[in-house]
Amino acid sequence: MIMTPIVFSNNTSALLSVEVDNHLKLFQSLKPSLFKGEVDARTIEDWLIRIEKDPE
User: 3-class SS at 44?
Assistant: First the structure.
């Protein structure tokens, strides 16, 4: 399978960047519990479940 890269115009890239920034700000405003950089998949899964149930 040949994968063709998607090329965005500068305006599209800027809009995507703003959207990502907005989502990050929203996520951070929920003050989720701190992720301590674990590499164990189970620990990561547990953290995601905790923040989805109760973001505070």
Answer: helix
Answering whether pTM is above 0.85, one says no
Write down the residue that tokens 């998949």 correspond to: 41
CB 31 within 8 A of CB 55: yes
Distance CA 38, CA 30 (A): 21
The gap from C-alpha 35 to its chain's centroid, in whole angstroms, comes to 13
Which tens digits make up the pLDDT trace of 5-54?
A: 666 666 667 777 888 888 889 888 888 877 777 788 898 888 888 888 87
33: nearest Cα among 18, 22, 41, 44: 44
Neighbours of 38 (CB within 10 A): 11
